[in-house]
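Inverse folding, one chain.
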């Protein structure tokens, strides 16, 4: 197998193209995970509305609803964590390209400082990164739905929310 010898200009062009692809991929992964979470949140709000506006559920309905919520939460978690894993791999490739372009070295692009802060080259995930925050939100939504499914309020026999009657008060027309 022969290796191709590239000039420095070609190497830089390849690094820039690679880095641009990594940036685009990172944005797409974040956008996809956010859209998915918003979609699930919409489903959760709709289900919550149904739970609080209808009759109390029988035990079999509560169990079925619990299984549905657990299945959706598990599937969502697997999807988000898969995107997170891909994002972290992509991030490591970005940092390699940024290092190869000396973006973390002071004096290369700017006189006294590096182009990118040194914190950007860390690839370890934090508890408050984008994907962890989405997982926490999905846990809160799922927990809320489970609480509603098991403690939904008793409603009137019609299944509708209680309606307050407004009485028409008749009075003199003298008071304005």
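Residues assigned per position:
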């Amino acid at each position: 197998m022969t290796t191709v010898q590239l000039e420095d200009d070609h190497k830089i062009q390849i690094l820039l193209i690679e880095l641009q692809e990594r940036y685009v991929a990172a944005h797409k992964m974040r956008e996809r995970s956010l859209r998915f979470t918003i979609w699930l949140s919409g489903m959760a709000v709709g289900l919550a509305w149904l739970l609080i506006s209808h009759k109390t559920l029988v035990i079999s309905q509560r169990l079925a609803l619990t299984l549905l919520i657990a299945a959706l939460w598990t599937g969502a978690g697997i999807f988000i964590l898969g995107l997170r894993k891909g994002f972290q791999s992509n991030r490591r490739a970005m940092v390699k390209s940024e290092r190869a372009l000396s973006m973390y070295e002071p004096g290369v692009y700017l006189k006294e400082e590096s182009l990118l802060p040194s914190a950007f080259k860390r690839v370890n995930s934090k508890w408050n990164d984008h994907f962890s925050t989405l997982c926490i939100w999905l846990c809160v939504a799922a927990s809320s739905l489970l609480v509603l499914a098991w403690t939904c309020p008793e409603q009137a026999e019609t299944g509708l929310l209680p309606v307050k009657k407004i009485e028409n008060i008749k009075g003199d027309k003298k008071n304005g």
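Residues 24 and 74 are 28 Å apart (CA to CA). The chain has a mean pLDDT of 87.
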